[in-house]
Amino acid sequence: LSNAELLAIMIRTGTGKMNVVDVARTLLHTAEGRLNAIADMPVEKLCSISGIGRSKAVTISGAFELGRRSAAEKIVQDRVPVTSPKDVFRMMLPFMRGLDHEECWALLLNKANRLICREKMSSGGMESTVIDCKAVIRKAIEKKASGVILVHNHPSGNALPSQADINQTRVLTKALKTCELSLLDHVIIGRDGYYSFADENMVSKF
Questions:
Q1: Three-class secondary structure of residue 178 per DSSP
Q2: Cβ count within 10 A of residue 169
Q3: Which residues, at least 6 apart from 116, have a Cβ–Cβ distance to it below 8 Å?
Q4: How many alpha carbons lie under 13 Å from residue 119 in its C-beta half-sphere?
Q5: What is the pLDDT of residues 12-70, one digit of tens each?
């Protein structure tokens, strides 16, 4: 089935002027043909499209949310080692895509770099969120982790770190070292890409 036909299954019915596939095509056109753009649309935006009321909009949003969770769940269940920032990006994008505020997560890894768990550490505003070093260390010790990867998003879409991001990463790196724990990376997720402190040799300098 085409993307329009799959969307039509969720939309279920058309209007007096358009059949259900036409409604789905209008939705795709509004999203410039990108399913990711539809996934990021709030319910209110979906409702503005002819043929899509609130019930249909909620159904569409719910379906994409299930897709996000399924993708993220599979990565955890497969228990493959986290070996690159690209792995982190794939794992966390389902949770962070389309957020209008910053969130900070900690990925806790064992000595084999396999994921023990991921924990949301804080939720902030559009331009910043606080990294609570004590909370990260406490959670890492509680889960018997040996390494930590910090992840947060930039709602602006620009993944480059701010000076505050750099400063907080430096502080966390030093705090973890005092407890014989390692900050393996700090990955910032933007709209279509990511910035890795490890790739840029930033972590090793702290």
A1: helix
A2: 21
A3: 108, 109, 110, 143, 144, 145
A4: 18
A5: 999 989 999 999 999 999 999 988 889 888 899 999 999 999 999 999 999 988 887 77
Structure tokens at 52: 């899509």
């550490």: which residue's tokens? 121
Radius of gyration of the chain (CA): 20
Q: Quick check: 183 and 169 in contact, CB under 8 A?
A: yes
Which strands, in side-by-side order, build the sheet including 147-153?
115-123, 103-109, 147-153, 182-189, 194-196
The pair of three-digit structure tokens given for residue 104, joined into one six-digit string: 């900070």
Q: Six-digit token pair at 131?
A: 């990294």
Residue 109's nearest CA partner among 183, 173, 31, 200 is 183
What CA–CA distances, in Å, run from 113 to 84, 184, 199, 204? Answer: 10, 10, 17, 18
Question: pTM, whole model, 2 decimals?
Answer: 0.71
Is the distance from CB of 153 to CB of 103 less than 8 angstroms? yes
User: What three-state secondary structure class fits 123?
Assistant: strand
Contact 109, 146 (CB under 8 A): yes
Neighbours of 111 (CB within 10 A): 9
Whether 142 contacts 178, CB under 8 Å: no
> For residues 168 and 131, is the Cβ–Cβ distance under 8 A?
yes
